[in-house]
Amino acid sequence: AQSVTQPDIHITVSEGASLELRCNYSYGATPYLFWYVQSPGQGLQLLLKYFSGDTLVQGIKGFEAEFKRSQSSFNLRKPSVHWSDAAEYFCAVGTRQGNLIFGKGTKLSVKP
Amino acid sequence: DAGITQSPRYKITETGRQVTLMCHQTWSHSYMFWYRQDLGHGLRLIYYSAAADITDKGEVPDGYVVSRSKTENFPLTLESATRSQTSVYFCASKGREGTEAFFGQGTRLTVV
């Protein structure tokens, strides 16, 4: 069955520190992969996406993610976290039927 | 304004009542989706539609009805609301297969 796992429910990092949010997926074909961010009380905003080609993709707000087929992973990274990055982050896989399957999310807190 | 809009933003209803959540997009996107977001569950797909007059069940369709007579509208109806349907509901749309989805701001529904 298709699924997305985000192993970390809540992560706290210090401002200026690096960040890595983990995402593993289960999908039979080459996946379309996405990372979305949700600020409190808001909808979801796309950070970045992977469809094909270069396995390291750049997104908005200084985020990047690397697709590793051998590990079925699509981890999100940022070299230096800002206080405004505090939010909830969702990894998603796009299926051939056209829908999106989301992980349960990782809440990021940023310490000053 | 271009985009995807949901209405109402907030709704309180009583158990057993019928309630309809509206979703409208201006891009003429083929695909539209309804998700519910609950603490600890992330976003779960209720129904989706690949085109006008085509709808499919998602992960949690029970108790919900959808229709899509026009490409731009995708209303979600709770025929007889239950407390377990208290949630935040997100509508999304996307173009062809493999593209990213755009989300509305959400509707917070409380069933008392």
Cα separation of the termini of chain A:
41 Å
Compressed to H and E, one letter per element, the order of chain B equals EEEEEEEEEEE
- Number of domain units of chain B: 1
Residue stretches of chain A low in confidence (pLDDT < 50, at least 5 long) are: none
Give the amount of beta strand of chain B, in percent: over 45%
Description:
The complex is a heterodimer of chains A (112) and B (112). With 112 residues, chain A is mostly beta strands. Chain A has one domain (3-111): Immunoglobulin-like (Sandwich), CATH 2.60.40.10. Chain A is built from no helices and twelve strands. In chain A, the strands form three sheets. In chain A, strands 2, 5, 6, 10, 11 and 12 form a six-stranded mixed β-sheet that branches. A four-stranded antiparallel β-sheet of chain A has the order 3-9-8-7, with no helix packed on it. Chain A starts with a strand and ends with a strand. The model of chain A has no long low-confidence stretch (mean pLDDT 93). Chain B has a single domain (4-111), classed as Immunoglobulins (Immunoglobulin-like, Sandwich), CATH 2.60.40. Chain B has strands spanning 4-7, 10-13, 19-25, 31-38, 42-51, 54-57, 64-66, 76-78, 87-94, 102-103, 107-111. In chain B, strands 2, 4, 5, 6, 9, 10 and 11 form a seven-stranded mixed β-sheet that branches. In chain B, a hairpin with a 3-residue loop joins strand 4 and strand 5. Chains A and B meet through strand 5, strand 6 and strand 11 of A and strand 4, strand 5, strand 9 and strand 10 of B.
Map the helices and strands.
The complex is a heterodimer of chains A (112) and B (112).
Chain A: E1 3-5, E2 10-14, E3 19-21, E4 24-26, E5 32-38, E6 44-50, E7 56-58, E8 64-68, E9 73-78, E10 87-94, E11 100-102, E12 106-111
Parallel strand pairs in A: 2-12
Antiparallel strand pairs in A: 1-4, 3-9, 5-6, 5-10, 7-8, 8-9, 10-11, 10-12
Chain B: E1 4-7, E2 10-13, E3 19-25, E4 31-38, E5 42-51, E6 54-57, E7 64-66, E8 76-78, E9 87-94, E10 102-103, E11 107-111
Parallel strand pairs in B: 2-11
Antiparallel strand pairs in B: 1-3, 3-8, 4-5, 4-9, 5-6, 7-8, 9-10, 9-11
